[in-house]
Amino acid sequence: MAPRRVGLWLIGACGGVASTTALGLSALARGQTPPTGLVTALPQFAGHDFDAPDAFVVGGHDIRKGNFLTAARELHERSNVFDERTLAACAGDLETWSANLRPGVVYRPDAAVTALADRPDMRRAGSAREAIDTIQADLRAFKAAHKLDQLVVVNAASTEPPFEPTDEQKSLERLLPALERGAPASLPTSGVYAFAALDAGFPYVNMTPSRGATLPALEELARKRGVPHAGQDLKTGETLLKSVLAPMFARRNLRVLSWVGHNILGNRDGLVLNDPDNKSSKVTSKDRLLAELLGYKPQSHVSIEYIESLDDWKTAWDHVHFEGFLGTKMMLQFTWQGCDSLLAAPLVIDLVRLTALAQRRGESGPMPHLACFFKSPIGVSDHDFGKQFALLEAYLANPDRKAGSA
Amino acid sequence: MAPRRVGLWLIGACGGVASTTALGLSALARGQTPPTGLVTALPQFAGHDFDAPDAFVVGGHDIRKGNFLTAARELHERSNVFDERTLAACAGDLETWSANLRPGVVYRPDAAVTALADRPDMRRAGSAREAIDTIQADLRAFKAAHKLDQLVVVNAASTEPPFEPTDEQKSLERLLPALERGAPASLPTSGVYAFAALDAGFPYVNMTPSRGATLPALEELARKRGVPHAGQDLKTGETLLKSVLAPMFARRNLRVLSWVGHNILGNRDGLVLNDPDNKSSKVTSKDRLLAELLGYKPQSHVSIEYIESLDDWKTAWDHVHFEGFLGTKMMLQFTWQGCDSLLAAPLVIDLVRLTALAQRRGESGPMPHLACFFKSPIGVSDHDFGKQFALLEAYLANPDRKAGSA
Amino acid sequence: MAPRRVGLWLIGACGGVASTTALGLSALARGQTPPTGLVTALPQFAGHDFDAPDAFVVGGHDIRKGNFLTAARELHERSNVFDERTLAACAGDLETWSANLRPGVVYRPDAAVTALADRPDMRRAGSAREAIDTIQADLRAFKAAHKLDQLVVVNAASTEPPFEPTDEQKSLERLLPALERGAPASLPTSGVYAFAALDAGFPYVNMTPSRGATLPALEELARKRGVPHAGQDLKTGETLLKSVLAPMFARRNLRVLSWVGHNILGNRDGLVLNDPDNKSSKVTSKDRLLAELLGYKPQSHVSIEYIESLDDWKTAWDHVHFEGFLGTKMMLQFTWQGCDSLLAAPLVIDLVRLTALAQRRGESGPMPHLACFFKSPIGVSDHDFGKQFALLEAYLANPDRKAGSA
Amino acid sequence: MAPRRVGLWLIGACGGVASTTALGLSALARGQTPPTGLVTALPQFAGHDFDAPDAFVVGGHDIRKGNFLTAARELHERSNVFDERTLAACAGDLETWSANLRPGVVYRPDAAVTALADRPDMRRAGSAREAIDTIQADLRAFKAAHKLDQLVVVNAASTEPPFEPTDEQKSLERLLPALERGAPASLPTSGVYAFAALDAGFPYVNMTPSRGATLPALEELARKRGVPHAGQDLKTGETLLKSVLAPMFARRNLRVLSWVGHNILGNRDGLVLNDPDNKSSKVTSKDRLLAELLGYKPQSHVSIEYIESLDDWKTAWDHVHFEGFLGTKMMLQFTWQGCDSLLAAPLVIDLVRLTALAQRRGESGPMPHLACFFKSPIGVSDHDFGKQFALLEAYLANPDRKAGSA
């Protein structure tokens, strides 16, 4: 039997996360790096039927010029990550995969996206329907060309501004005719890509705070087509820390008075977030979980600022003011200095592996056992990282039962 | 039926933790303060048969001059904690309880203890046996005088230097004759107090890194007498954080390269720890759990320094250097500014309540469900705070079953 | 000869800075506290003819209810500063001085001021001229009642929103007729008070970022009346650190790439600054000096957020990203935890002493030798704290020569 | 007239500082890098007769295997500094200069040095005199081979353990006969090299806390031979910050209660410092200046720990506890993350340029105008960085007058 071949399609393929994912898959396949940072490589998860690094074929969309290799090189030079040796060893794979890149499909872009888009052959769609058709054609061509057994679509594009779902976005019954008649606001960009993937039967994973497949109509679509999907907004830094520290305060009955988090970063994600509209989406996602973890809402403040010199190194300072016994005020402060793309890329690989596995197991809809990866996990309201991780452990320990379905 | 009366006997009664515990019990009983910082006051534990604050009568031993009120006042003035209002409201209770104080019993004291001891009427015992008899007489007199239903003995004294257990300390069979013949090293000071309590049937809780009841012979004694006990070394600051942060790194497969923790504090605990012998006991206790939480031993360094100006405010700086994907080194740093006595005192109340409850349930020996309170929990090797807390939840949810006994 | 009596008139008398200043003067006069934090008490400045603490009589305006004693008590309780002993020893003085308080004069108040004003007898002026007359009457009555030799007026009120000076505010020649005809925007609130003081011959010191006497027309007035004045915006925390750290980077030719400063605080100052208009005034003042100290403008970001639980404890986190040799990026981070009123109050006393001295020396106009106290010193463009301090040393070492006039 | 050629002889040539200095000189000469980090490249010092980067010829001694290129490459790979492009552009120069390397001369080595020494052809001297002769022969051969106009010797070797000077080391009159008769402890290793340089007329600069030319007999020798020298212990991180922050506290009359500094680093310097003897030399040097800057001695604590994963990235956490007005305790904390070799190397170039200039000006003995570079500047007791820098400015502004000689 021929070995399994799994496609990974990256929306935002020339970004830091996507290009690091491609570089990482190649480096893992070539034995250039240990699997540090991969949850699926933990000893306790050995023996599961995860796809090996060399099973993957990578492609993607982007609205910017460049390819996997130039993007990885740029990240190397600006952010001082990876080394020349790894880049040299993997350059061939990255070039090969770059041939699978397709120009992005733009439909009603927001200002931040417009500012970034510089690929002359990107395709402007007149309607959401047209955009979906174009994307699906790309996905199907990729699958056919590489004789892929499975194909997972991953949203690693820039964050889009938040919005309130329209009636059409709230039910598939209303969405479908709206798409057919070319109703202008029927879907945002992230929704167009999610629709294209799910409708064509390809699992969809959303690393960003954009809506993606969380729109009710698209959740319906996923169930109808029997496709698993996951999201939203990877939990890689400050929020990950909140999800382990806030339960500690709660369990010790220490009252959090205020929690202030300031994030600075200098990558393209930061540039897009510098637009107030796009930023508010991210800030909301980061801020919400505190009340859920503590059982009350302390004063909180979250900021994200674009500081160019930091490149991909996101630096966060958090100041937690809490009250202990007899009204005594105390403080915890932390600073987190992490490289965003390097924190996110192994989790992309994890999520693709886990999603492909779920599809093979015949699962569809949101995957609650993946809650530990996300700031706003679909369908899971508990934000305690320890408890979320236990969901994953339980899922993998019981191959025939979905987490939460007991 | 008369309301239950529970005695709390504090070894090291004039220290910051003990006097804050007394002040706190009074303040809670008088409605002067909310139960912030008490685990037993968490909403999810409501409905359990925990003793109310006004059920307690407090007494204790100390080798230093002073009483509950002077010690609480000193802490207020030096460390800028509590307020005048609380002190005034509780002064009467503290004075009443101070009448229960007895001069400490000294047997083969180490240098740090000798330097502290200034109470002229403290009693020097010629043998461990004599010390035990004196202590037991004090405990029994306290119980009788106040018609107590239960009496819990708590070690809140200064840390003693570490040592390797002798053969006599390893079995009750050998210890008892050694005590009778007055063998010089039969028990350290913390062991003498623990023996006295357990032998007389009083539960014993050890807040310190001193050996206390962890000596095998004393564990045997506890089981033989059917008495529950708990310890050792309260987890209130840096180590508490380690026990939630290290599992986070482990679960994300991020490799901790080094973990450096520097602690500075200026209370009497800090002064005793300034003695290199006593310090090593504390440092070992703080350092050990990292390897157990991560599954490997990163380079680590822990220091504790006495900095007088900080008084009871323990300040810790931790620098965690870790490796992510593709060999990328990243950093987490935190500073913790907590007031030791205020962090520990509510946990003393929790432990006394939980221990009294266990005794009423007929339990004896170490209590694994209390692991979440300690740096070195007796009989529990998992240091993950979330999992330890789940043991407590399971214990309280199943009144007829002990944690870990399933 | 009767001892000198000097009046200190505080605009914003019920604020934290003003009430701490009053408490501090009383505590110094009564020997309750050492002069820690007072520049004029440094050993190298001994022997100068500074007014002794007991030479001062304190009064002031406010638009809020309360007095020196209630304001000091509130600060004590909310921010956990001072002790009961000091408050008790000084309560009599504070009550005596509180009798000198007069209701504030409001003229075209901004939204933040309106929200604060709760004193029912405050006086609403129909024109700047009317406001000035009312204020001058208060000042003159205070001086007469206490037979004061000198009277210094200090602006310690909340920050007003920034604005561009009008033509009338740019020359005395235009301002005076505008005042007479009741032109509506002739002066902002801070300008009204400054005009009242200077015009009546009383030196004026501006602790805030509000315009105060920095309007060109008022600078003219000060010279014409022969009155010294000083400002603007006390340098007490993050900016003080910038003014010593930035010169260090400059002298070592280390290139600052970005300097991010996040400030959080919970006092009334913070509440007023939470209004975006008022905040921008403060942020601009804090941000400007970096370019002047470094000789180029790095990317910088300054935020101030109101976090209620911090009360008067301003906490700042600064992240300085700099480039060293061979393009190597390095980092300095600091956190500053200072109590604003306690940092500012001794400097108010210093400035009043130094201003009274200057007036006795016959000086008028801005005092460049006071640059080391301010974020935006009038007439001094060098922000290097060391060099600014040298101006003060030179001034005091040469009693007959003004700093900068060599 | 032929352009001037200046030799730079590095003791400890294969260390991080020395190899970075060589790489930096080449990169500057080839226009590969801007002169960031060089004090002598500041705009205000333009126009001085400093030697251009391409005037230098580099050589040195080491007891370890390796050369300039291998050492620079190792630093690149371990500490993630420089880039491949710079290394490639400068590899030729580094190889050429590596031909000038000579095996180190070992005389009575301490344990840490012995552990490092792995160069098989290093020369063990039987007496200090013999060591001196060998070193001088190397220096003279280097000068002759390259027709050097000047030659500056720089100590960039590992720190040696501290010791109290012997009588022989205190006067040249006693030292010279002791050398002749081969008295065993006549000079430590750093003294042997310093003697060799000064005695042969070559200026000597000591970047380390080792004694070097600070022994009274060697200071005498320098004056007698008319040779300038400088030292000791470069001020590059935590101490530099102390020398700007402590004067700030002093000038504001804020009382420093305690100053705790914890340093962690993982380079060879750190490894040698892990030896308690060698460490105490460094710690003393770092700790002393606080009392001199403040005018009183606060409690202070300095630690240096070897943490392998940090490589050349020295990370320091400082906690400054200070008292403000009315007894209020406040805090400043900072963390410094700097790459030691990259901070030191440009200062080596500065010092060589300034020393060569001084020699051309006919100066001899210690150079007080270089105080701003050192933790323990010879002959200057003022540790205020701003004032020290003013000495350098004054010196360069007055070409005919030495600093401090007015």
UniProtKB/TrEMBL annotation, chains A, B, C, D:
Identify the SUPFAM superfamilies for this entry.
Answer: Glyceraldehyde-3-phosphate dehydrogenase-like, C-terminal domain (SSF55347), NAD(P)-binding Rossmann-fold domains (SSF51735)
Quote the Pfam families the UniProt record gives: Inos-1-P_synth, NAD_binding_5
Myo-inositol-1-phosphate synthase GAPDH-like domain spans which residues? Answer: 237-341
Against InterPro entries, the record matches this protein to: Myo-inos-1-P_Synthase, Myo-inos-1-P_Synthase_GAPDH, NAD(P)-bd_dom_sf
Q: Which GO terms describe its molecular function?
A: inositol-3-phosphate synthase activity
Gene3D superfamilies registered for this protein in UniProt: Dihydrodipicolinate Reductase, domain 2, NAD(P)-binding Rossmann-like Domain
Set out the biological process GO terms recorded for this chain's protein: inositol biosynthetic process; phospholipid biosynthetic process
Against PANTHER family, the record matches this protein to:
MYO-INOSITOL-1 PHOSPHATE SYNTHASE (PTHR11510)
Q: Which family does it belong to?
A: Belongs to the myo-inositol 1-phosphate synthase family.
This one is known as Myo-inositol-1-phosphate synthase
